[in-house]
Amino acid sequence: MRRQGRCVRQFLLVFAAITFSLGHAWGQTNSPALPPGVIPLDQGWTDDQRTLWYTTTQGSRLVPLDWMLNLEAASSTSAQPKKFAEDLARLGYLPNPVTARNPHKLPLGFVVDHEPTRAADLMCDTFPETCDAKTMRKPWVGLNCSACHTNDIRFGGKAFRVEGSATLADFQAMEEEMLKALKATADDPERFDRFARAVLDGEFSDETSGSLNRQLLEHVAWQQKLEDKNRSKVRYGHGRLDAQGHILNKVSLVARVQDQLDTVAADAPASYPFIWNTSQQQKIQWNGIADNQTTIDIFGIKTDVGALVRNTSEVIGVFAHIETDRGKAFLGYDSSVRLKELIGLERQLAALKSPRWPETILPPIDGAKAARGKAIFDAMGCANCHQPLAWDDLTSDAREKMVQIKEQKTDVFLACNTFLHISKSGNQGGQKVYGVTGDRIGEIDATRNMLVNAVVGAVIGKFDELLAGVFTNVFPPDKARVGALVRAENALPGVSDSIKKSMAAQCLSQDNHPLLAYKARPLNGVWATAPYLHNGSVPTLYDLLLPAKVKNVGAGGPDPVGPTRPEIFAVGSREFDPVKVGFKSDVIEDSTDFVFRVRDEATGEPIPGNYNSGHEYGSGQLTEEQRLELVEYLKTL
């Protein structure tokens, strides 16, 4: 009892400090939030809140700040030098104005994390020279949630900002080009000399230069491990990321197992979900991997533990440093995760309203046409899954619905990969999944259980064991799936990859497993969230109301009669199409846009991960006029 009382007192003190500091951190910034000419929509945020959203660290640590500022792009030459950070706009990352909170002109969502004490010395077995040189204690650059959940839309020569919408950046290319740039710097003596003199400045010497070279090689080796682990043959392109695959593979690596299993590749890219009303949903992520609305109330402030879990998982996957080999989850794991900032950002996100169709910029909505569209929406029973929610309703339950993948008949692999992902548990083996409770993690176990253990440990590492008990309500128990691949002749017709066919067959044969479903949620603001479906495989709302040719089960059958969803389209343009509702998606030769393909260009086979099937529900029977009326109604939400 004395220990429990001490834990409660410690937690109250920590939470009081966090609450106090949030009141100060979330104050005025007196900084311009948007670049000149970009129009903000009324979503309930002030410029100060936008600036904080764009620049607040969550504990992500990609590379040291002085490396980011001086690293040359792999394509850079001495005759035509080009910095890597300055090249990120080409990959779709938005510019962010130079302010006191962004003095280095980093792109939006690329933020500085600085821990000058020994608490920053993490993962020193992986980065021994980096720790010895105390580089861990210098400012670092990582990403926060705004990098992936902010977008600009352009129409008629104007641009407007949508907060909480899906980025059109190419995360996969960013990681690959970062690794290429680091390798090119390490391999080219002249390039490295320029880099070392800029980074070390007045401290340049043979000794410091040698140390920097060893640090650089450590980071090349680590990022190569991550790339090898993810090893996706599927190109993500603009606007997609296999976030769950990256998170699970990162957890598998930090378990510090020498002989890794050949785990599931991160080859199921998903469209970035729009995140307004997230706090009002029961489930998080496209496949409802965890429950969202487990709360505790301290000093009258409701703290959503589900949101804390979601954000901690995200930071772990996107470059946070974490030590799972310095103890046990119930004692807490040392990490770079910033819980105070995560709580502050989540509280701000809960105040974000969905965007309304801006009739001063886009063509006005045809009211009569939209009314006919609503009648079609109601008659088709769309509200059975997509419950209505007003644009400014920030309190009602979102009442989202989880629909099994075999019922939706859409691409299975985002859900399936998570369901089948197993790993050797390493130093997490034998621990209880939830730190102080739950089954013990086996020598080989579901990687999701290892993720739960890592998240619990990272949060307890900041808050103490008082929180441990709530995690059983956030992460439902899960079991490892280890066994022979099943026969799969009927799955993924037209695909020759026997492993992917067997994986799909295993997932489609399950009865109502909670992980093998995708979330249907309210559609307020959906007009601003192209491309569509969970994997971004449909360019516009109009195209979503057409049937697909590709099927994920059965013999395939004849093609649908009439128009079908496009199987090739471009992604990356921010020019808006107000008729079909989405971005311009014509494939233009020599464009930098990414070309999305449902089928392999060489073989014609459907690409697992890129299926554009599912969510048809009779829409193929609509007339052209009815489709346009339904699209007009969706603009009003």
UniProtKB/TrEMBL annotation:
Gene3D superfamilies: Cytochrome c-like domain (1.10.760.10). It comes from the Bacteria. Keywords: Heme, Iron, Metal-binding, Signal. This is Cytochrome c domain-containing protein. Residues 368-637 form the Cytochrome c domain. PANTHER family: BLR7738 PROTEIN, CYTOCHROME C PEROXIDASE-RELATED. It comes from Mesorhizobium prunaredense. Pfam families: RoxA-like_Cyt-c.
